[in-house]
């Protein structure tokens, strides 16, 4: 009987681990039009400054994405929804082509953020 309880407990723990790994970021803000943001200089700069922590995060979606963007980028969007993967790809492509200096600064910040997180 004890062996059966132990086996059930192990299976339960394994299932919890599998389910936890597949949990995605919240999709509440997946309706953001990434192209509209990238094409609007004022809006694009607002998001960038929020992500870089050099300006305020004005909207709820900016606050949300600023919390996950470093991890999402460094993990190749492992926990992203399909729409979030698409948005990160579009942002990456736009900055790589149009403002590589800011893109390099963003990459450096994501690395710094992940190093800080690893020390916690």
Automatic annotation (TrEMBL):
Which keywords does this Swiss-Prot/TrEMBL entry list?
Signal
Question: Coiled coil where?
Answer: none
**Matching InterPro entries:** A10/PebIII, OS_D_A10/PebIII_sf
Signal peptide positions on this chain:
1-20
SUPFAM superfamilies cross-referenced by the UniProt entry: Chemosensory protein Csp2
Claim: Signal is one of the keywords in the record: yes
Pfam families, alphabetized: OS-D
What this protein is called in its record is Chemosensory protein
């Amino acid at each position: 009987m004890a062996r059966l309880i132990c086996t059930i407990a192990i299976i339960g723990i394994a299932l919890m681990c599998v389910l936890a790994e597949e949990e995605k970021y919240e999709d509440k803000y997946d309706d953001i039009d990434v192209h509209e943001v990238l094409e609007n200089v004022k809006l694009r700069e607002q998001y960038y400054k929020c992500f870089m922590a050099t300006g305020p995060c004005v909207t709820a979606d900016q606050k949300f994405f600023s919390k996950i963007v470093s991890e999402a980028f460094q993990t190749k969007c492992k926990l992203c929804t399909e729409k979030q993967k698409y948005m990160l790809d579009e942002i990456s492509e736009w900055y790589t082509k149009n403002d590589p200096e800011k893109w390099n600064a963003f990459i450096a910040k994501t690395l710094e953020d992940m190093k800080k997180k690893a020390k916690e």
